[in-house]
Amino acid sequence: MVSGPTDGGPMNGAHGDGARGDGVFIEVDHVEKVFEVRRRTGFLRRERRQVRAVDSISFTVPRGEMVGYIGPNGAGKSTTIKMLTGILTPSGGRLRVAGIDPSRERSRLAHRIGVVFGQRTTLWWDLPLIDSYRLAHRMYRIPDARYRANLDRCVELLELGALLDVPVRQLSLGQRMRGDIAAALLHDPEVLYLDEPTIGLDVVSKARVRSFLRDLNAERGTTVLLTTHDLQDIEQLCSRVMVIDHGRLMYDGPLAGLHQAGESERTLVVDLERELPPIDAPAPARVVRVEGPRQWVAFPAAQSAAPLVARIAAEYPLVDLSVREPDIEAVIARMYEERATA
Questions:
Q1: Closest alpha carbon to 186 in 126, 141, 237, 239
Q2: Interior CA angle at 103 toward 101 and 108, to 5°?
Q3: Which of 211, 238, 258 finishes a domain?
């Protein structure tokens, strides 16, 4: 959990804007993060080398925007978020969140941010869920009325009522994740950092979390920076996506533009009544695999699936079909290969 504030600063709505005059709320200017790594090279011998986790990235985020921040494992996503929260100090460049330098004023910034790390809980493992919320109440010095209102709202929308008296260690992954999100929002943060918030969740839990985040952004204008490997998280929540790979920002724009840049494809999985020759799909769609009555039809991810589905349904004995989203790591890998050969 991000360190709690040491003073009783004002709650959301009582802060100064903190954004620049042009509306920028998060500002990242040529930021770098270099780690020194030691490895054994022989008996009593170690070699030092530097690993550049974030390599001179720059971007801005206006207040109230929901942004997807994606890339393969080890790309630098979590390192960026840790610098934005003040957990890590940049090796170079300039960071500002609401006008605050995170590494220099971490306690002050804690009033204004919420953080959820999908693979690390911020809750107290052996205590009932409600006790973690009571601790946050005291740590952030949240006024009683505001704490109760926020808690009631999170409990209702995230369906936590039956879980409040359950020790955190007994919660399923999906239940714990919803509990972590509630904990991050009790003090009315203006910006919410979500690092893999739907990792390992079932379909129902994912839908519940996404719906809650959409409502939060619409009703309160909370700025959200989301890292995820699930492209549906991005499609359903974010109007903008940034791609980082090997510590460098490779793309910043709408999701459709990402598909075009990476020339990614979605796949229509078609189950027919019987085994047939490959479907005659209109270009650029094409059959890429046939196994008995099931066929896989690839088509550009930036295009709608509706015309292709309508044509297949009209011309073939269709039993069922589904659309599979492109593997985001494959999209980014293709973008990286194209840049390397350019």
A1: 141
A2: 65
A3: 258
Instruction: Measure the CA–CA gap between 250 and 181, rounded to whole angstroms.
Output: 29
What's the rounded Cα separation, in Å, for the pair 54 and 52? 6
- Average pLDDT along the chain, 342 residues, taken 10 residues at a time: 39 50 87 89 80 94 94 88 95 95 93 87 93 95 95 92 96 90 94 86 84 91 90 86 90 79 82 95 94 94 88 95 78 68 62
The candidate with the shortest Cα–Cα distance to 58, out of 335, 246, 252, is: 252
Residue 25 burial (10 A CB sphere; 0-12, 13-18, 19+) = buried
Domain hosting 161: range is 24-258
Strands 248-253 vs 294-300: parallel, antiparallel or unpaired: unpaired
Same domain, 282 and 231: no
Do 48 and 119 fall into the same domain?
Answer: yes
Please say which residue of 224, 240, 258 terminates a domain: 258
Measured CA to CA, the distance from residue 187 to residue 323 in angstroms comes to 40
Regarding whether 275 and 236 lie in a shared domain, the answer is no
pTM of the complete model: 0.76
| AA letter at 28 | V
